[in-house]
Amino acid sequence: MLPPPKVTNGGVPPKPIAKGRPHIYQDHHFSITNPTSWVPYMQLMRLDRPAGFIGFYMPSILGLVYAASLAGPDAVSPTQLWTQSGFFFVINLFIRGAACTWNDNMDQDYDRQVERCRGRPIARGAVSTQQGHVFLVLQLVVMGALLHPLPQPCGAYAVAMGALYALYPFCKRFTHYPQAILGVPLSLVIVLSAYSLHIEAGDPFQDRNRTAATLALGIAEVFWTMIYDTVYAHQDLPDDVRAGVKSMAVRFRNSTKPLCTVLGVLQVILLALAGVWTQMPPVYFIVGVAGTAVALAVMIVSVDLAVPASCAQWFKLGFCFVGGCMNGGFLAVYAVRWWFG
């Protein structure tokens, strides 16, 4: 195993200089503006890494705009939609924080063998295993308090999400498809956020067609997660192979782009079916379906899987373009119906 890097500046290691690889730490503002004792815990929550947060947050917004487009502006006001978006921004800080804290604790031995991960707080010794577990419990308590007022179905989905996030770190040990496992709780939050609007008209399982559309949307989210997280995992491919970490990037390292193309085609088909089954207007198919297809194509063609910095860049850009189009399709439907009555 590689030894943890030397710790300075209150538990924050210095920024490494590695040509062609994204920086492991970007602490110059993060550590100056916060008490040094807080920094490792904020890093456990990935508050210094906002790009990954978007991956957790966007499915929540997708569920909100999906339900709002089904119910219409008479049932969901723009103010309510905006308020719920803010609520899920906060709750996802803790969902992501708890998931990353658990992951870092379970994967600390692996992390010490991977260049990009060996400086994480637990792996480098800035936070002990026990402290990590205590911090996890505190985050779960906050999450429980925030989720408690939501409608009853939300609780069951939240518990299922938590169980799958707890399982995720161990998947890297026995399967090459942890990205697929990760996609399931991200798809469940679509349903959770849809129910959070407290409206029967936006019920994603109100009838057979809506049930089929909701399932299609959830599976499309799983495929999208498999695409972007496989691209992301290519940053660590040599280290993961050496450490014995399993992933789709390792399994399909010689055919990742063809795999992502197939997954992308399936994702777009499912988005189209969701629109057909819910009788969405043309604007959805233009923005949500065609827009997603173009964004996926640009991402898959443009990313250089042999260059870690390119993988990191398209991991971020994918959320903006692909995720933005997926959400934008339903949001456009809601906006048109609100504007024209």
TrEMBL record:
<feature type="transmembrane region" description="Helical">
    <location>
        <begin position="283"/>
        <end position="307"/>
    </location>
</feature>
<keyword id="KW-0812">Transmembrane</keyword>
<dbReference type="GO" id="GO:0006744">
    <property type="term" value="P:ubiquinone biosynthetic process"/>
</dbReference>
<feature type="transmembrane region" description="Helical">
    <location>
        <begin position="258"/>
        <end position="277"/>
    </location>
</feature>
<comment type="similarity">
    <text>Belongs to the UbiA prenyltransferase family.</text>
</comment>
<dbReference type="InterPro" id="IPR044878">
    <property type="entry name" value="UbiA_sf"/>
</dbReference>
<keyword id="KW-0472">Membrane</keyword>
<dbReference type="GO" id="GO:0005743">
    <property type="term" value="C:mitochondrial inner membrane"/>
</dbReference>
<dbReference type="Pfam" id="PF01040">
    <property type="entry name" value="UbiA"/>
</dbReference>
<dbReference type="GO" id="GO:0008412">
    <property type="term" value="F:4-hydroxybenzoate polyprenyltransferase activity"/>
</dbReference>
<feature type="transmembrane region" description="Helical">
    <location>
        <begin position="319"/>
        <end position="340"/>
    </location>
</feature>
<feature type="transmembrane region" description="Helical">
    <location>
        <begin position="122"/>
        <end position="144"/>
    </location>
</feature>
<dbReference type="InterPro" id="IPR000537">
    <property type="entry name" value="UbiA_prenyltransferase"/>
</dbReference>
<feature type="transmembrane region" description="Helical">
    <location>
        <begin position="81"/>
        <end position="102"/>
    </location>
</feature>
<comment type="pathway">
    <text>Secondary metabolite biosynthesis; terpenoid biosynthesis.</text>
</comment>
<feature type="transmembrane region" description="Helical">
    <location>
        <begin position="51"/>
        <end position="69"/>
    </location>
</feature>
<keyword id="KW-0808">Transferase</keyword>
<feature type="transmembrane region" description="Helical">
    <location>
        <begin position="180"/>
        <end position="199"/>
    </location>
</feature>
<dbReference type="InterPro" id="IPR039653">
    <property type="entry name" value="Prenyltransferase"/>
</dbReference>
<protein>
    <submittedName>
        <fullName>UbiA prenyltransferase</fullName>
    </submittedName>
</protein>
<keyword id="KW-1133">Transmembrane helix</keyword>
